[in-house]
Amino acid sequence: MRLPNKVVFITDSDSDSGKAIIRRLKESGAHFILNSHSGGSAIGSELKLVQDAGLQAVVVTIDLSKTAEVTDMLLFTEQQLGTVDILVHNNNEISPSTIEDGDEALFQQSIAVNAKSAFICTQVFGKQMMMKQAGKIIYVSSIHAEKPTGSAFTYSIAKGAVKMLSKEAALVLGRYGISVNTIEVGSIAGDDELFHSYLSTLYNDYEYKVPNAVLCSNDDVAELVNFLSSDEARLINGADIRLDGGFLLHYMNFKMKKP
After folding, report:
1. Mean pLDDT score of the chain, rounded to an integer?
2. Whose CA is closest to 83, among 170, 8, 13?
3. For residue 67, what are the CA distances in angstroms to 1, 133, 185?
4. What is the mean pLDDT of residues 33-62?
5. What are the φ and ψ backbone dihedral angles of 67, each rounded to 5 degrees?
6. Residues near 54 by beta carbon (within 8 Å), at least 6 away in sequence
7. Which of 61, 114, 134, 236 is the most buried (most CB within 10 A)?
8. What pLDDT, in 10s, does the model give residues 107-130?
9. How far is the C-alpha of 92 from the C-alpha of 253, rounded, in Å?
10. Contact call for residues 211 and 250 (beta carbons, < 8 A)
11. What is the pTM of this model?
12. CA distances from 44 to 39, 141, 149, 160, 233 (A)
């Protein structure tokens, strides 16, 4: 097992990516602190798997964009599980928005959920990790930190902010044995609906714009999180790892691998 007795905090355990990460890191022997907006009801199956494996999971429901709530939560869970070894920030809220008529409240909400929460978690968890001179911070982000969506500009802006946050944090926290990396997740089944756009054709025939016509899955994301959480990845710091099968390299339709 790669992560025996390591404590992992997942920011959005209710999501498909969160559930996949729980299942994979459970196999590596990790314990969990799981932020769940459903209070744990959406992850009942995953909690049972953790329990059946003889591991521990503490479920919390907090606003990660508020420093006081994150700090208080860490003090509470430290008494039950100890300090956090691995932070997995996988907040991924997507709302349709355009530059022409984008709503200010929506912009602020997207920044708070996707980016401000990443900053606050990095700062609070980073201080705890600095004390023991070790830790892993992993942002599960998106290729849209680099590529405009044409349909959800607030999301792209927030993910772009997380991309640079990762670089700044890697530079500072790396001095304390903490590695900070970003996974830029590519097209997943259903993204053509999430990023439906009147402006961009990026997601037209998107499954065939991956050179081998195989889309990324949440299990693929979880596998990479597992690796970056391990000692084998100790020299990877400040990296943006694009997990998209080559999707962003596409530029010629006539060579697509269609059946």
Report:
1. 95
2. 8
3. 33, 22, 27
4. 98
5. -55, -40
6. none
7. 114
8. 999 999 999 999 999 999 999 999
9. 29
10. yes
11. 0.95
12. 10, 25, 34, 33, 31
